Amino acid sequence: MENTIDRDHGKQMLYQMMLIRRFEEKAAELYTQTKIRGFLHLYVGEEAVAVGVMQALKTDDNILSTYREHGHALARGVDPGRIMAEMYGKQEGCSRGRGGSMHLFDAGKKFFGGNAIVGGHLPVAVGVALAAKKQKAARLTCCFFGEGAAAEGEFHESMNLAMLWEVPLLFVCENNLYAMGTALRYSHSLPQIELKGSAYGMESMAVNGMDVLAVEEAAIRAAEKIRSTGKPFLLVCNTYRFRAHSMFDAELYRNKAEVEEWKKQDPITALQNLLLEQGSLDAAAISELESTVETAVQKAVGFAEAGSWEPVEDLTRFVYSEPQNS
Amino acid sequence: MENTIDRDHGKQMLYQMMLIRRFEEKAAELYTQTKIRGFLHLYVGEEAVAVGVMQALKTDDNILSTYREHGHALARGVDPGRIMAEMYGKQEGCSRGRGGSMHLFDAGKKFFGGNAIVGGHLPVAVGVALAAKKQKAARLTCCFFGEGAAAEGEFHESMNLAMLWEVPLLFVCENNLYAMGTALRYSHSLPQIELKGSAYGMESMAVNGMDVLAVEEAAIRAAEKIRSTGKPFLLVCNTYRFRAHSMFDAELYRNKAEVEEWKKQDPITALQNLLLEQGSLDAAAISELESTVETAVQKAVGFAEAGSWEPVEDLTRFVYSEPQNS
Amino acid sequence: MANENNTISITYREAIKQALRDALRADERVFLMGEDVGRYGGAFAVSKGLLEEFGPDRIMDTPLSESGFVGAGIGAAIAGMRPVVEVMTVNFSLLAMDQIVNNAATLLHMSGGQVNVPVVIRMNSGLGRQLAAQHSHSWESFYAHIPGLKVLSAGTHEDARGMLLAALKEPDPVVIFEYTAMLNLEGKIPAGAGIVEIQKAAIRREGKDISIITYGPGVYKSLEAANELAKLGIDAEVVDLRVLRPLDESCFLQSVRKTHRALVVEEAWRSVSISAEISSRIMEQAFYELDAPVHRLCGVEVPMPYPKHLEDISVPQAGDIVNMIKKILQHD
Amino acid sequence: MANENNTISITYREAIKQALRDALRADERVFLMGEDVGRYGGAFAVSKGLLEEFGPDRIMDTPLSESGFVGAGIGAAIAGMRPVVEVMTVNFSLLAMDQIVNNAATLLHMSGGQVNVPVVIRMNSGLGRQLAAQHSHSWESFYAHIPGLKVLSAGTHEDARGMLLAALKEPDPVVIFEYTAMLNLEGKIPAGAGIVEIQKAAIRREGKDISIITYGPGVYKSLEAANELAKLGIDAEVVDLRVLRPLDESCFLQSVRKTHRALVVEEAWRSVSISAEISSRIMEQAFYELDAPVHRLCGVEVPMPYPKHLEDISVPQAGDIVNMIKKILQHD
Ligand SMILES: Cc1ncc(C[n+]2csc(CCOP(=O)(O)OP(=O)(O)O)c2C)c(N)n1
Ligand SMILES: Cc1ncc(C[n+]2csc(CCOP(=O)(O)OP(=O)(O)O)c2C)c(N)n1
Ligand SMILES: [Mg+2]
Ligand SMILES: [Mg+2]
Questions:
Q1: What angle separates helix A267-277 from helix A212-229, to the nearest 10 degrees?
Q2: Where do the DSSP E strands lie in B135-232?
Q3: Where along the sequence do coiled-coil regions lie (chains A, B) (predicted)?
Q4: Which H/E stretch holds residue B267?
Q5: In chain A, what percentage of residues exceed pLDDT 70?
Q6: Do the chains contact at A117 and D134, CB–CB below 8 Å?
C-alpha cells in the first residue's frame, strides 16, 4: 500500500474489516459451542474485498452474494445483531432464522442473499440488473462469487447475457485460489479469471484483494464505468482465505506454510500499518477500535442470545406469500 | 478457392456434398408427403463443413453431432438407406426407427448421434475423449455444434474441462449465423466464437465454412495438433444454411436477399467450378456424378420404403439393455 | 364476463397469444422473454406479431441459455418487474430446473418472507408431433412436487386464455404448462373471456358412474371418452385438475364421494406421477367411499419413440379410457 | 459370503469407502470423479485416502461444473470406461439433470439399443445437518420417475457397502442415493460383506399387523418405531424398498397381503412422491386385501428451514411413525 488515505475514511474501513474479522472469530467459537450449526463459511483474510467494493456502492444499489457472505452483509450495514441471530436460527434474525449463515437477507438494505448453490445467483443478478435498466433507474447491481463458481455454466451464460443486454452489473470474482479443496489450477484451464471477460467483450480487471485501498479504487472505477456506459464489468479480486472452507474441512489440500505466507498480507494489518505510518492512527486508537468492535460483537451475541425461537406451528409459513407480502 | 486439388479426392468430396444435398432435398420432398415426420433440420448450404472436417478423421475416431446431422452421418459413411429408413421410422433405420431425423446413430461407425438438446452432447463428447485418453488410445473425438449452442453453459463447462484435462477433442462450431430465428448478434455479445478459445487457453481458428478445401485443410491441421499435443482445439466454420431452420419455420427473421447473397457461395458450385477450371472434371463427369447421386438417393428411398414397422409389442424395448447388449 | 351464448371459436395457440397481448397492454412491468419469442415468432408461433406490437424491450429474444434467462426472469421479478419467461418445452426446462427449484421456489422462504418472486414461467409439454425422446415429455410432476411453486395446466381454451392473466397477479412463482398437441385445436370460449380463477379444479362434465380425473390433453380425450361411454349408458364425470400444485383435492374427493369410482388419466409416465398422488389422496381420504379401486391410465414408461404407430400407443387415447372404464364397471 | 456370526462394526461412510476401494481395485476401467473427491477427501470424507492409493487419474477432482462432469461421465461410459460420478448432493444434481435424464436415460433407446451407458452416479440426499433450503432435500422422486434409469437407495450399511459394486455390473445408468444423516451411523455387517443384489426390496423386520414401507433413513427410523410398537404388542413389518426404480412391487404387495395395512414413510415432500406411487400401486393391486386405507408419513412441504427445532419436525421421526400406526390400528 503506497497510497495515503483520508484519516476518517481509513478508520472507517479499518473498523469494518476488524468488525468482520472479530464477528467471524466469535461465530467460529459459537459454532464449537453448537450455538451456531449448519455450514459456516468464514471470510477471514478476505475482508478487504467486501469492504473495498462496498465503498463503490450506493444505498439504492443491489447486492447478491454467496454462502460466504457475513463480510458482505456486515460491510453493507446489515445489523450485526440480526446477522448473529440468524446464525443462531432465532426469529429476530435477518431472515427470521429460516436461512442461517448461508442465507442472510435484508431486503431493506437491498441485500439479496446469501445464496448457496454455487453460481446459482449469477443469472438472478443479471435479472436484477435488467430490471433496473428497464425501470430506467440509476441502480447498479453487484454480485459476489468465487473463482470456483466461474467454472459453472451459469457464469458463462450470465456474462454473455449481461454484456449482450448491456445491464449495469458489477461481477466481483473473489479469487481465493480454492474452491473447497480444489485449487485454481484444477478448476480452470486458464487461471486468470479476468481474461475471461474478453470472451464476452466485457471490460475486466484484476486487483490485489488483500489491499483494501486498491480494491476500493478499482471498484469505484468499475462502478463509474458501469454507471456511465450502462455495461457490465468483471472485477477479479485476488485474495486468500486464512481459515478452512467451512467448519468441516480438514484442509488436506494445502500446507500450513502457504497459509502462513499469505497471512503476511493480512489486509487488516496492512491498513493498520498504513494508518500508523501516515500518523492517522496510534496504538491507543487501535485499541479503542478494538474495544468498539468487541462491544459491537458482544452486543450482537447478546441480541442473538436474547432472541426467540419461531413457534413450531409456523413451520409452513413463507412457502407462499402471505396477504401482506403481496 | 485458390488451391489445386487431387482429381480423385476432389471428385470424392464433391460426390459427398452432392449426395448430402440431394439426399436432403429428397427428404424435404418426402416430408411434404408426410413420409417423414417430426422435426427435419436441413443442412443445405453447410455441406462443406461436414465433408471437409470428415477428411481429417480416421475410422477409429468418434463423432458426436446435433439434430442437424444428416450431412455428418452421410459424410461419415453411415449407409444412406439406413438413414432414410430412420427418417421413415422403419426398424431397418440406423437407430431402428426409434430416433428419427434428430437421432441418427451408428455405433459401428462411431457415430454417437444425433443429439437434440442443444449443447447437451458437448459434455458427453468430453467424456468420450477422456475415455480415449485413459485408454491410451490414439482416437480423436469430433463434436459438431452450432453457434447458438455456444451460448449454453454446457459449452463453457466443456471447453474448460476439455482443456483442463487435456483430452483429444475437436470442437467444430458450425456458425451459420442463426440459432433458429436468433441472429448471432442477438445470441453472443462477442460474435467471433473462435475468440472464446482464449478464455480457456485453447487453440482455435475460424475458417470459411463454404470452402470445403479450406475446411479440410484447417481440420487436418487441427487434428494433427490434437493428435500431437493431446489437447483440444476449437475450429469455427463460418457458414450459412440456405433453407429454413426446420420444416416449421416461416423465416420471418431474415430477408430473401441475404439468403440469395449467400447462395452465391454455394460450396458445391464452388468445388465444381474449381474442378472444372483445373480440368479435373467436365460437364459429362458432373452429370455422371449427378446420376450416381440420384441412384444412391433412390436406392436409399427404396430401402426405406421397403422397410418394416417395428411391432407394437416391442414398444418398451431399449429402455434397459437386453442381455445381448450387456 | 360475456354472455354465455356469445362465444367465439379460437385456436388454443391464439388463446395464449391474446392473453399475452392483454397482459403486455395492461401492465408496463410485464415483458416476455425466451428463445425465439420475437423475431422467429415463437417456436410454435404463439407469440407471432407481438414483437412488432410491443418492441424488443418487451418481447426479448434470448440466447440459448435456459438457466441464464430463467434466472434473469427470477431476478427481474425480485426487482419489481413481472416477467413472463417462456421455456420452449419442458424437455429443455431441466437446464433451468436449478433456477426454478432452488431459487424461484425457495427465495421467499430462505429470506423469511422478505423476497417474493412473482415470475411466470410458461412451457410447452407433451407429445404429438413425433419429436422423439428429447422433445416429447410431460414432466409436470417434477414441478408439482415443489413447495413454493404454483403449477397450472391449461387443459382448455378458456384456461389457455385466462391462466396467464391470473398468474401475473400472483406474488409467487407460477409455472404454466401449455400443450404442443393442442395448439391447433379449435375451441369455443366466451367472446369476452379473460382472467380465470386459479385455485380450483373444475368439473368439465358431470356424471354419476365414475370420476375421470385428469389434466392437460387428458381433458379433451376424457370428454371424448365420456361421450362414447354415454352411448353405452355410462355416465362419467370429468374432473380437470387445472392446478397441479397446490392440488384442489376437495373437488376430486367430492366427485369420488359421489361416483364411488375413479380413473386417473395422464400422458406422463406412470411411476411417481401426479396420478399416483391423486390415487393416494383418494386412498387416504375417501377409501371407505370407494366401490372399486382407483385405477390409472398413464403414459407407457419408455422414452418417446419416433414412429407414429409407437408414439400413438405410448399414451392413453380416448379409446383406452373407454375400455378401461368398461372394465372397471364390469368388475362390480 | 461371510459367516453370519462373523460381523464387523462399521460406519455408513466407511462402508461406502470400502466399496469404492474394492471397485477401483477390481476393475481398471473404474474411476471416481466429482467435486473434491480427491485432495479434499470428499465433501463428507467418504473418499478420504483414495487419491493417495489410486492417484489422480482414478480419483479425479472436477471443477464446479455439474452438467459438464456428469456429462463427461456419461461419455466415458459410452466409450468403455466404468465411471463412478459423485454429485456432492442431490440439491446440486438439478444442474446435471438434463444430462442424467435427457442423455444417460435415453441414449440406449434413441439409438435403438446400440449405445448403452454404464455410468454410476452417486449422490447424497436428505437433511439432518441444518443445512437449510438449498442443501437438505430428498429428490429421489425425480429420478425414480425416469425410464432408463435404475435408482437405488442405500438404507442400510450392507447396501452402502454392496450396492455400488452391483451397480458397476449393470449395463445401464444407475443412480445411487446415500444419506448425509447416516454417514456417522455405526452398523454391523458381515465381515466379508460385498456385492448385494439390486433387483429386490427387502423385509428388514417381519411382522403381521402392519407393513411399514420405506427407504433411506426411513429404514432405521421405522425399525426403531417397530421396536417401540413391539412393546405395545404391535407387530410391524418393515419393508425397505431399496430399488426405487424399477420398483419391486411384489415384495411390498405380498407384505400388505399378509398384514392388510400399510404405512408408507419417507423424508421427501409428500405431493407427487415415491410414497404416492407405493400407495397407488397397493390401491390398484391389493385393494380388496386392505383392512384400512394406506397412509403416508412424509416430509412437510416446506423448503428446509435452518433451525433445528423446525428441521426436526419437517420430517417424520420414529415417534411420529409410532403414533401414526397406533392411530391406524385404533381405527379398526
Ligand atoms: C452447485 C454447487 N455445487 C457444489 C456445491 C458445494 N460447494 C460449496 S462451496 C464450494 C466451493 C466454491 O468455491 P468458490 O466459488 O471459489 O468460493 P469460495 O468458497 O472459495 O468462496 C462447493 C464445491 C454447492 N454449494 N453448489
Ligand atoms: C436446450 C435446448 N433449447 C432449445 C432447443 C430448441 N432449438 C433447437 S435448434 C435451436 C437453435 C440452435 O442453433 P445453433 O446451435 O446455432 O444450431 P443450428 O440449428 O443453427 O445448426 C433451438 C433453439 C433445443 N433443442 N434444446
Ligand atoms: Mg474460491
Ligand atoms: Mg446456428
A1: 100
A2: 141-146, 169-175, 178-179, 182-183, 203-208
A3: none
A4: helix B267-277
A5: 98
A6: yes
Radius of gyration of chain A (CA): 19
> Cell numbers at residue D109, please?
433407446
A139, A203 in Cβ contact below 8 A?
no
Give one DSSP letter per residue of A229-240, joined into a string: H---EEEEEE--
Q: Averaged over B106-126, what is the pLDDT? A: 98
Q: ω before D246 within 30° of 0 (cis)?
A: yes
- Inter-chain CB proximity C110 and D97 less than 8 Å: no
Given ligand 2 and candidates B40, B101, B118, which is best to mutate, with the most ligand atoms within 8 Å of its CB?
B118
pLDDT of residue A323: 83
Which of A154, A189, A231 is the best substitution to test chain B (most B C-beta atoms within 10 A)?
A189
Q: Closest approach of chain C CAs to the CA of B314, in angstroms?
A: 9
> pLDDT digit string (tens) for A104-126?
999 999 999 999 999 999 999 99
Model confidence at A252, in pLDDT bands (50, 70, 90)? Answer: very high
Alpha-carbon distance A223 to A207, whole Å?
14
Inter-chain CB proximity B97 and C307 less than 8 Å: yes
β pairing state of C210-214 and C262-269: parallel
Identify whether the C-beta of residue D296 lies closer than 8 Å to the C-beta of residue D276: yes
- Count interface pairs C-D at CB distance under 8 A: 142
Q: Does the beta carbon of A43 sit less than 6 angstroms from any atom of ligand 1?
A: no
**What are D176-210's pLDDT values in tens digits?**
999 999 999 999 999 999 999 999 999 999 999 99
Interface of A with D (CB under 8 A): 37-39, 89-90, 97-100, 102-103, 115-120, 148-149, 151-153, 179-183, 186-188, 245, 249-250, 252-253, 309-310, 312, 315-316, 318-319
What is the C-alpha separation between C12 and C154, in angstroms, rounded?
9
Q: Is D29 a residue whose pLDDT tops 60?
A: yes
How many C-beta atoms lie closer than 10 Å to residue B191's C-beta? 15
For residue D67, which residues of chain C lie inside 8 Å, CB to CB?
95
Residues B75/B54, Cβ–Cβ less than 8 Å: yes
SS3 content of chain D, % helix, strand, coil (to 5): 40, 20, 40
> Would the pLDDT of A326 be above 50?
no
SS3 content of chain C, % helix, strand, coil (to 5): 40, 20, 40
Catalytic site includes residue C331: no
Q: Are strands B178-179 and B182-183 parallel, antiparallel or unpaired?
A: antiparallel
What's the rounded mean pLDDT across residues B161-174? 98
- What is d(CA A89, CA A15) in angstroms, rounded to the nearest whole number? 27
Cβ contacts of D314-320, under 8 Å, gap ≥ 24: D314/A315, D314/D127, D315/D127, D315/D267, D316/D218, D316/D221, D316/D265, D316/D266, D316/D267, D317/D221, D318/D221, D318/D222, D318/D224, D318/D225, D318/D228, D319/D225, D319/D228
- C-alpha to C-alpha distance for A307 and A310, rounded to whole angstroms: 10
Other beta carbons within 10 Å of B254 = 16
| Residue listed under C-alpha cell 462373523 | D6
Which pLDDT score is estimated for B5? 83
Instruction: Tell me how many degrees the CA angle C165-A112-A215 measures, rounded to the nearest 5.
Output: 140
Cα–ligand 3 centroid distance for A127 (angstroms):
24
Q: Residue A33 has what DSSP assignment?
A: T
* Extents of the domains making up chain B: 7-304
Chains sharing 3 or more CB pairs under 8 A with chain C: A, B, D
CATH, range B7-304? 3.40.50.970
Q: Which domains are seen in chain D, by residue range?
A: 7-190 (3.40.50.970), 202-328 (3.40.50.920)
pLDDT tier for residue B322 given thresholds of 50, 70 and 90: very high
Taking contacts as CB-CB distances below 8 angstroms, the residues of chain C near A98 are 109-112
